[in-house]
Amino acid sequence: MFTAEQMKMLRDEGLLSPEKRYWSVNFDEETIRAIFGHEAAEDEQIERLKRYYVKTDIYNAIRSSIPLYILVGHKGVGKSALFKVLSSEEEERGNVAITIQPDDILDIETSEENFLKRIREWKEGLAKIIFRELILSLNNYLVEPIKNQSMKEWVANVSILLGNIFGKKLAELQNNYLEVTNAQLASLFKNSLFREKSVTIYLDDLDRGWKNSSNDVANLSAMLNAIRDLSRDTINLKFRVGLRSDVYYAIRTSDETTDKIDGSVLWLKWTNHEILVMLIKRIETFFDHSFDEDVLLKTRQRDFQDSLGAVFEDRFNGRGHWENAPMYRVLTSLIRKRPRDLVKLCTLAARKAYINKHNKIMTNDLEAVFANYSNDRLTDTGNEYQSEFPKVKELLLKMKPSKQEIQEGHPCKYTRAQLVKKLKNILSMSHFVLSNGSVATEENLAAFLYKINFITARKEVNNVIQRIYYDENQYIHNDFTDFGYDYEIHPAYRWALQPDSIQSLFDQIELTD
Asked: H or E element: which one contains 317?
């Protein structure tokens, strides 16, 4: 077995037989990271990230010339990773990409008394930051060799423009920032130079430290209104904002002015097939193989066996619904349509394979980490939605199936009436209050569990089980209409909820088709 570094050396020295497409791997930490990557994809080396990133319709929309997009998605769906890929590609095309992080906006002071004043303060504060970051970005071209001649000429012309407007050239502004106003920034970008090269501002992780307080909601809402105004008034400047779904919901339902930005919202969603393709790309790039992404996206999952078989046992040697199941069905059944889930599951299993001295991830390696993976998903969900529902983790744990449900043969699966009844029983023993102070009811608890993908809707059609997530259809569970769907707790949480009956899970959980 060879490590990733050893295989690289063999390839570089021409000692690896070209017909040997795959080789036995040793799952040490370096190799695990080289194959499956970092759980936070944005922490990957950019060239590695770009090699395996799957470019969906959302990617194409975000990279368009539309001045404002707000990218919304659950934690772990890859908002930051997408921004990192796009930012790098913008720079490769000779454009300017600027990333603004939470610590960049710490010094923006806003009024808590007047919402319109908040918006103005955000516009002025962001204008100063954007100008400062623009200067820093352009200065990088002065100290580093510029391969793109047109970019070199453009930066020189911008330097002259800045001298004419502010009396200081680009190099002089590096350590002597100007307090540029919003009006001055808008005037600067009206110059024809900024029609030649696009400038894109990526605002990411702005919900870090979010507490869902009324001040948090008002502040972030004012910021979004300010960005909308800047994108409309400042020609040739594009904005891309990343927000967690729970944060966006809080703002959207608390401030009527956000209906004006609703048309600029894009939901970052993945299909299980797209996430599996991303895993295949990770594996193939590790083994230094070329491929066509469009072909992979059109390939049937069962035809990925050669690639998966390089690092996974071919079939899951389990019992019940899992007996002899293709490994891709096991993997896709346990993830919540979030790339980070798959990275986490594969990484945990690969570490267990290393301990067991396996050169492939075997069934017992996966089985050994299901409980750990499930507990982590429960903890992550609790942390992600605690600001929206303070006792979310307590609620999730109380969804543990009762002895009666297990005896009746439908643990964690419910009709609408059964789900409402279970939640009513929970409320008879516990008192839950939403972050807005209202007392929880069984109906809004059911809607909440569906919204956070703890439960999914399900319906059997022609012997095929359809599973629907909230992001795919927000109206399946509502107070007014019953669309005939049942509900089930997502398999990712089941080991955490049934630690005393783990073996029975393989008989209870039906795998995704």
From this structure: strand 315-317
Domain match, 347 and 406 both? no
Note the helical H segments in 414-454: 416-429, 442-451
The token duo for 451 is 């919204």
Half-sphere exposure of 91 (CA within 13 A, CB side): 18
Final residue of a structural domain among 267, 289, 318 = 267
| CA–CA gap between residue 273 and residue 293 (Å, rounded) | 12
Residues 131 and 278 in one domain: no
> Within 10 A of 441 (CB to CB), how many other CB atoms are there?
16
Classify the phi-psi angles of 14: left when phi > 0, otherwise alpha if psi is within -120 to 50, otherwise beta. Answer: left
Banded pLDDT at 208 (limits 50, 70, 90) = confident
Residues 10, 11, 15, 18, CA torsion sign: positive
For the chain, the distance separating the N- and C-terminal CA atoms, rounded to the nearest angstrom, is: 34
Q: Which segments of 144-181 does DSSP mark as H helices, in order?
A: 149-166, 170-173
Q: Residues of 405-431 as b/e, b for ≥16 C-beta within 10 angstroms?
A: beeeeebbbbebeebbebbeebbeeee
- Model confidence at 482, pLDDT cuts 50, 70, 90, reads low
For residue 441, the enclosing domain spans 389-513
The 3-state secondary structure of 275-310, one letter per residue: HHHHHHHHHHHHCCCCCCHHHHHHCCHHHHHHHHCC
Mean of pLDDT over the chain: 88
d(CA 287, CA 307): 10
Cα–Cα distance for residue pair 433/438, rounded to 1 Å: 6
The predicted-structure confidence for 182-193, as pLDDT tens digits, reads as follows 999 999 999 999
Where is 100: in which H helix or E strand? strand 96-100
Enter the DSSP assignment of 454.
S
257 and 110 co-located in one domain: yes
Kindly list the distances between the CA atom of residue 293 and the CA atoms of 41, 72, 82, in Å, as whole numbers in the listed order.
Answer: 19, 25, 16
- Cα dist. 342→80, 186, 278, 297, 335 in Å? 17, 44, 10, 17, 6
pLDDT digits (tens, 9 = 90+) for 257-294: 778 888 899 999 999 999 999 999 999 999 999 889 99
The model carries a pTM of: 0.88
Report the distance separating Cα 485 and Cα 446, nearest Å: 13
Distance from C-alpha of 71 to C-alpha of 79, rounded to nearest angstrom:
7
